[in-house]
Amino acid sequence: MGVLSGITVIELCEVYQGPLAGQSLGDFGARVIKVERPPKGDPMRGEQYALERNLMSSVFAATNRNKESVCLDLKTEEGRSALLALLRTADVLLHNYRAGVMERLGFGYETLAEINPRLIYAGASGYGESGPLAGLAGQDLLIQSITGISRKGTNGGVTPNYLNVPLTDYSSGMLLVQGVLLALIDRMSSGRGQKVSISLFDTAVSMQSLEAATLLNYGYEIRWFDLSLNFPVQVADGWVTVLGFFRDNPLRLICQALDLSDLSESMGLQTDVEQAANREEIVERLRPAFRTLTMDDAVQRLQEVGVLSAPVLSYEQVLQHPQVSHNGMIRKVPVAGQEDLRVIDHPLRLSRTPHSIRRGPPRLGEHTAEVLGRLGFDEATIAKASKARPEPPQAAGQSPAGDL
User: Fold this and answer.
1) Distance between CA atoms of 324 and 196, rounded to whole angstroms?
2) Binning pLDDT at 50, 70 and 90, where does residue 156 land?
3) Residue 111 is part of a domain; what is its CATH number?
4) pTM of the shown model
5) Per residue, what are the HEC states of 235-258?
6) Does residue 178 fall inside a structural domain?
């Protein structure tokens, strides 16, 4: 049971953005039926390491727990009829196809709203449903590029710098969940569903709302790292990040932490603004003292005098960090025929109605016969609708997401 128990979600999503939204709803109790196209299904099933060893793809498992898998070929009449049968009584439809694809298949919002007025029709896209970029395929690194995020590096923005984390996929997926939940709340009083839309592009633009405020109103772009005496510095066993934010004279405090004489006095740099403007010279003078300290020692010393600081860790180190363990951020999901897979848990915590892991990531088409059989489809029709018997994960491969 969960807070969304009784809600049925039909997920027509691939890769990360949409599947993350489906998994989030499933984690909190919704029944999520993932509709995949034969013969390969979601491209995330094609993780090469897993394929070569006949194992479940770990990246697929990362966003597809708490789901059932139904394999349908939506290019066939039988496949479309089966999907329509699923949607007649569903509460939510999630899709991340390009603009116009759902309409061409006969599953546009207006069509489905007539068939199921209570349906919440949630679409995730790259650039939006209309406009000059709507027909293009969206991808996180491209979105970082076209929305200015790749120019946000601390190198001054001259050379594009891409964050090797799909931050807009994650953010837009979670925003899609927010939209679905708001629509479900509205339906409680109105009795009607509605259309919910989010795009990678709009999400990335919105993530920079503070920077937009200075550009739109005063003609300059705020650059946070340059606002204070902020810098990374090497220590005996790695690196730490030091931030002078929120302190009138951060250099004095840093020198205090390092048992050095006050450089702000000797260098005649009394204010945070002056120190930021002379960052390189200051860091050069501080570097020898930092090199004698470990990460833990440096961070502790700085925090004790009120200077913001943290170690610079690899993600491998992060996953082994005691805070990750304490917060319960790594969970196991069951996978038939192999050892459980470890994945990142949902970060949201509810005290009375917590989320849960009720089933592991499904095999491709694992639940096709069961789900369609309950809807009254016979074996011959199910075979035509799915076009092939369920395949093991090693048969999956890469294919472009978001189109048919």
Assistant:
1) 33
2) low
3) 3.40.50.10540
4) 0.89
5) ECCEEEEEECCCCCCHHHHHHHHC
6) yes
